[in-house]
Request: fold
Amino acid sequence: DADVTQTPRNRITKTGKRIMLECSQTKGHDRMYWYRQDPGLGLRLIYYSFDVKDINKGEISDGYSVSRQAQAKFSLSLESAIPNQTALYFCATSDFRRDTGELFFGEGSRLTVL
Amino acid sequence: AQSVTQPDIHITVSEGASLELRCNYSYGATPYLFWYVQSPGQGLQLLLKYFSGDTLVQGIKGFEAEFKRSQSSFNLRKPSVHWSDAAEYFCAVASTGGFKTIFGAGTRLFVKA
Reply:
């Protein structure tokens, strides 16, 4: 089983719909992240969380919200999806105790907004 | 502003040929430097990382990278490419503490027989 699991892997939705992408991890890491990948732009940070009570905006947080339900779970929500939010979304984790900066990624959630 | 530049959007090499992927960064302090690989339909996997010490670092799958402070570069190399190396490669930079990692736009590698 994957250490970082994202659901759903693929989702097609319509403009204006609410969408939630879920991420769970079994690595025991305290830090969790949501990134968005667009062709030619690399990965951009949406939100990050250092623990359950600490959530921070990243580079491109507008139009998104997150919830850290537990140390192992970090969800990304699009309250009213729009077509330019069509992208590949990645959840990632890192281990503060080791402080290496290495990120561990899920397999991605491909979202298409029509 | 912190940034990572990968000048080559895509590169095609023949199987067995050598490979060098370029990466330049702009960062105020000594950063943590990374190369990640993304195979089709997969998440990103760490190839190698540099924090300090020896400027030539070895990674998985036969890859290596060299940190050159004077050139603000961290180029990835492999002496002999295999067809399974076809993927997208991302250079990244992070602060101490590792959060807010900044990624380059990526270089897609094609391998021809």
In short: Chain B has a mean pLDDT of 92. The CA atoms of residues 71 and 106 of chain B lie 19 Å apart. The radius of gyration of chain B is 13 Å. Chain B touches chain A through 26 residues (CB under 8 Å).
